[in-house]
Structures are given as structure tokens and as C-alpha cells.
Design a protein that fits this description.
By secondary structure, this protein is of the alpha+beta class. The chain is 23% helix and 31% strand. Strand 5 and strand 6 form a beta hairpin. The chain starts with 17 loop residues before the first helix and ends with a strand.
């Protein structure tokens, strides 16, 4: 196996992703030095894409996030093909018990509680709800005692966490939106979909607030295509579902929009 260098992957990703490249390369390096298998923390789609680029065909990659539509997942690297079970990923679903009839929780409050609990963001995965007051999140099984013993409040609301085997059917809060645009340029589509001006979008691009397919970009001239995922920090993300040409040679673009959760 030819030994790779982390720096050789820098040109393929945005400059602010070098820390991630280095982290993902450290996993590759461990495997290259004889580790038979390795289980990562929860990685977002952009991090997993970088890891897959670095690993290539040198090792086997399998992943799981605790449920079928998971965004954040733990990755299992191995030096040979292994048939894994869900338990091998060491992911536990935690339900947040609280008086649903008298109180309410939201995504940002739960995320803030977990993020400020003295643990790294990578130790827990997605936060999901059924839209009827029930909330769950996925965490590393190794931290089960920490989650159940230390997380007793979300905001001002007293809660109790319990590990569960039954996972909610998550509510999809995305909405479909159709726009008509004169161009398929990234800045134009983002402006039309978010209701912001192109100058605002260009400012967001220059400020490293825009991602295309989970990777940062400052290039407003990119032409978007079907299945691309575009996001602007503080606004949300859109997925390009369909592109059609109108009789006036404009573009009718069908989007799925998920606004930033409050």
C-alpha cells in the first residue's frame, strides 16, 4: 500500500476543512499501521465524504446512525469485509421523558443542552421528534451512564433520559418549494430559495457560511444540478429535486427546503 499524506488531499476541499482532513487522515493512518478495525465517533455527511476520499479502496467502510434516515453516523473501518450488526456500532437511542401535556421542547434547546454538557459534539448523533412531543437522540453507547445520569434538564425543563430500543418514526419537516430562476448559478438559486438578495448570498459565501453537498464553497458561479444539497448557515438547507426549462427559457426548480430548527 502506497502511504498517503494528509496534505495531498487539501486541494480537494475548502481551506477551513483542513482540520477535518487531518482528523480523517488520522483514522486512515491508524489502519495503515496495522489496526484491524476502527469505530469513529458520529460524523456528518461532509466528514464521511472526506474520509471516503482519503480511504479510497484501501479499507472497508460501513456506517450507521441508529435509524435509516440518519444524517450523522458512526463509521466502521476494517481491513477486511465484515458482516456487522447494529450493535457493533455501539449506538444507543435515548428518549427524553418530560411532562408532554404541560411543557414543550425544541431541537435547539436539546442541542444546546448536549453541546454544553462537557462532551464533544461528535459523541451524539441526530435529534429526532415525532412531531407530537416525543423526542429522542442517538449517542455513543459508551456514554450511556453519562447521558442518563448527567442530563437532567433541557433549558429550564426538568427531564429524565432513558435508553430505549424502539426508535421514533421521525417527522419530516421539509417543505416543497418551486422557484423560477433565470440561471442555475449557486448564488441565484440560494437567493431565490431563501428570499435573500444575491448580495446577501455573496456576503454569506465570502464569510464561509455556504456549503454545497456538505462542503464549504465561496464560488458563486457553480451551476447546481439535481440532487445537490445547498445550505446557508442560520437559514437552512435545500435539496434540488427537479429542474425543468420553461417556454421562456428560464428554469423551474423544485426544491425540498428544511429551515434551521429553532
Amino acid at each position: 500500500m502506497m502511504m498517503k499524506r494528509a496534505s495531498s488531499f487539501y486541494p480537494y476541499f475548502a481551506g477551513d476543512e483542513r482540520v477535518t482532513v487531518d482528523k480523517m487522515f488520522s483514522f486512515y493512518k491508524k489502519m495503515s499501521h496495522g489496526t484491524q478495525w476502527l469505530l469513529t465517533d458520529f460524523l456528518d455527511p461532509g466528514q464521511r465524504d472526506i474520509l471516503k476520499t482519503i480511504v479510497g479502496n484501501d479499507f472497508f467502510i460501513q456506517e450507521d446512525g441508529g435509524y435509516e434516515q440518519a444524517e450523522k453516523k458512526r463509521v466502521y473501518l476494517s481491513d477486511r469485509a465484515i458482516e456487522l450488526s447494529p450493535a457493533d456500532y455501539r449506538i444507543t437511542a435515548f428518549e427524553i421523558a418530560y411532562p408532554v401535556k404541560f411543557a414543550s421542547l425544541n431541537h435547539s434547546a436539546i442541542l444546546g443542552t448536549l453541546a454544553n454538557a462537557g462532551i464533544e459534539l461528535a459523541t451524539f448523533g441526530d435529534i429526532i421528534t415525532d412531531g407530537k412531543g416525543r423526542w429522542q437522540f442517538f449517542g455513543k453507547s459508551e456514554l450511556t451512564d453519562f447521558f442518563t445520569d448527567q442530563i437532567t434538564r433541557v433549558g429550564r425543563q426538568q427531564v429524565k433520559l432513558k435508553a430505549v430500543s424502539s426508535v421514533l418514526s421521525p417527522q419530516d419537516d421539509g417543505i416543497e418549494k418551486t422557484i423560477v430562476a433565470s440561471s442555475l448559478r449557486l448564488d441565484k438559486i440560494l437567493a431565490e430559495s431563501s428570499g435573500q438578495s444575491r448580495s446577501q448570498i455573496k456576503t454569506a459565501l465570502a464569510s464561509n457560511l455556504v456549503k454545497l453537498n456538505w462542503h464549504g464553497t465561496k464560488n458563486s458561479n457553480i451551476i447546481v444540478k439535481v440532487n445537490d444539497i445547498l445550505s446557508v448557515r442560520y437559514f437552512g438547507r435545500v435539496k434540488v429535486m427537479k429542474i425543468e426549462t420553461t417556454k421562456k427559457n428560464k428554469y423551474r426548480v423544485v426544491l425540498k427546503l428544511w429551515q434551521t430548527k429553532k
